[in-house]
Structures are given as C-alpha cells and as structure tokens.
Design a protein that fits this description.
By secondary structure, the protein is an alpha+beta fold. It is built from six helices and five strands; from the N terminus they run αββββααααβα.
C-alpha cells in the first residue's frame, strides 16, 4: 500500500506529463453558492417535502486571487448594502437573464480575471437516492 508521499509523487508526475503541475500546489480561492437545495429529502405518508422534479444548482468560481465582497459588488455596479441574490436578479427566460447588466458584468469579470467556473444542476429526487445509496 502506497503512503501519501508516494501518492503525491505519482499525481505530480502525471500532472507534469500533461503540463499541469503548476496547478498542484497553487493557492486558490473558491467562491460557491448552492441555490434551491431543500437539504433533506423527506417522505411523509405518500408525499415528499419538495416537488419531485425540483432542481438545485451548485456553482462556483475558482481563482488564484481573491476579491472582497465590496470589491465584487463595486465591479458589478451593485449597491454595497444589498445582498447578492439570484432570485432577485435572474428572472425571465435563459436568454433574458443573459441580457441583464449584472449577469454581463459577472461574465466580464470572470473573463478579465481568467477565473475557472463550474456549474451543476441536480435533480433533488435523484440526488436524494444517490446520497442514500452512497452511504
């Protein structure tokens, strides 16, 4: 059985071959948000505590640098006293949302900073069963 140093060295060599070793020990900041997660799937009687086809979203930004919440709000043109909330700003169709100034500003900031983004939409019923089975 390999110890942690052997495992680290193998991963390091693998990343070096692919040209990604610079990412191995780089300090980064991860900003993420989880929207619409009911946290617990409960079956009571014959009903669920949520809509069976409900979806929650997990998304985030990974960066080498960090940005304070005030700097973020300032660069996005948002009042510093207001909370950033998707439910307030992301109403309408997908294309309507993409046209909104705040969304455009976020995308420009991500591009300017060369940040990496991730996004995952998860169906709550499926996730609940997978979570139970994975235990």
């Amino acid at each position: 059985m390999a110890d942690i140093k052997d495992l680290y060295n193998r991963i390091s060599k693998f990343l070096e071959i692919q040209g990604y070793q610079k990412f191995l020990e780089r300090a980064e900041t991860l900003y993420y948000d989880e929207s619409g997660n009911d946290k617990h799937l409960i079956i009571k009687g014959e009903k669920l505590n949520t809509n069976y086809d409900a979806v929650f979203v997990l998304g985030g930004i990974q960066s080498e640098d960090s940005l304070s919440i005030d700097e973020c709000k300032d660069s996005l043109g948002i009042d510093k006293t207001k909370e950033l909330k998707a439910k307030n700003d992301l109403k309408g169709s997908f294309f309507d949302v993409l046209k909104k100034t705040k969304v455009t500003n976020v995308l420009k900031l991500i591009e300017k900073k060369d940040w990496h983004i991730h996004f995952n939409a998860i169906q709550i019923l499926y996730y609940g069963f997978v979570d139970i089975i994975d235990l």
